[in-house]
């Protein structure tokens, strides 16, 4: 590690340059132009739609970054017009399209896309996607016009819908929280909506081509895709834009801090053992050991992971993939797994099982692949692992848990994971996923009834890709959806995201939260790797997320206090009652500096982790233990984290 990492490396783990969006205005209408698409469409200052985008995806649901040319932007006081040409694809195929965007002070916005392919194009989705924000919209009325002309009154889902809440769409009409009337007309194809909160996206998504149709599908040479979105806005908003210093007020006890854990896979066992001293100091309560016979995992790989857990002092949980698809075969496989555990001295108090077919997504309308009966599988586990806590659910995302719910009476624990970049890989989308966490919590509590649930191992990067062949490798160290090795895991953004994640699920009642891994692409510290790792270069330095986990792992079972934070606030975090003091951990959730104060504050001491202290913290495990006296408001730099101790 050199002495002076760049600010970009400290914040994001990458030097990738990002072109800032261009703000377009026409009277009360505004929108951000980014990579040829529109984000944050507002009328009279209130957000109307989160995005309108013409996207091109590959056969694994990966979204291409289009190469844009002939971009022309014309702006007048009451009108703006954008035209562009774009090519999306890879070495094997390309889709070219022209787009025209026009917005007027009368409240009308149109986005037209037209394109085709010379060679043929295999895709899972090509065309328009519209994102509707969730804050103040969940549970609200919406008028649906179907493709047959029928009009229906319904609502945006409040509890997360496992399938499509609205189908066969031509138009939607709704009223924003501030009282604006919004009509969205979608032409050129049949549209439907899915609840993107399933993947922790902060939106409902309306998109082209029903999922019940075959996918991937091929666009033939000469075939033309021609679609138009028209949004009409009217009214004056009553929504007040909050600004100034945010005052936070810790309140009553709302729960207890759950144990924090990490994930571990066999390929990272050696580097984890090499870093055992630092990981032991972090203090994870448990390690989730992954075991998948399809990947060649056997007794030797399991023993290496167990050695790492024992050396670190963390309780081992077994996360085992069952490959058999019939009941008898699955029961025999679980029995053999129990014998293997007995041979290594029965170290597992928690067993998590998943049939291999459940690791891949089954989209709504598709036929579920053969898999063993869940109740039979868990009954076999009770026999094979006497006295152990038996867990199940999904090793993949909440989406799959929501679509294929486990039989509750057979389980002691329900589990699932998340990633904030299944659909979009930009910084703002990653951090916006915290807006969906309350809905995930409410939905999983509804699914689980009184059965405890645990989340993770989760990280910014994607552990597995249920929707395609694999997660994306990232040799160029860039921001992109579906990254396996995402650079922000190593930056301040990763620490801020992790703090918000722990806070949201801890307050929500999780029985355990596992984040990332000791080493590797989801790690908390640097280790030798073939993946790019600028500045750290595999030398054992600590990522900022290390300090978040180390600080909060020590607070297990401490009372969590209510805190007047909303998902849309510029900071995220939680308050705890620790001995004779209140301790508040906060993170700036954005790139702009933000200021807050603690209500009724007594004597304050603080420790800050930010871009300026990044290099020092990479070498000092106790960085957040070094509290210093502070008076007055606290201003946090981009994605900075602060530990605040308020003495009685």
Concise synopsis of the structure shown:
This protein has about 650 residues and is an alpha+beta fold. Strand 7 and strand 8 (about 110-115) form a beta hairpin. The chain is globular, with a radius of gyration of 25 Å.
Describe what you observe in this structure:
- This protein is an alpha+beta fold and 648 residues long.
- 18% of the residues lie in helices and 37% in strands.
- It is built from 12 helices and 36 strands.
- The chain has a 16-stranded antiparallel sheet that branches. Strands 21-22-23-24-25-26-27-28 form an 8-stranded parallel β-barrel, surrounded by 6 helices.
- The longest helix is centred in the middle third of the chain and has 17 residues, at 327-343.
- It is globular, with a radius of gyration of 25 Å.
- It starts with 6 loop residues before the first helix and ends with a strand.
- The model has no long low-confidence stretch (mean pLDDT 94).
Q: Please count the helical segments.
A: 12
Q: Strand-residue fraction?
A: 35-45%
Question: What low-confidence regions span 5 or more consecutive residues with pLDDT below 50?
Answer: none
> What is the mean pLDDT?
94
Rounded radius of gyration (Å): 25 Å
User: What is the number of beta strands?
Assistant: 36
What general outline do the C-alpha atoms trace?
globular
Assign the structural class, choosing from mainly alpha, mainly beta, alpha/beta, alpha+beta, or little secondary structure. alpha+beta
Largest sheet: 16 strands, antiparallel
Helix-residue proportion: 10-25%
Distance between the termini: 41 Å
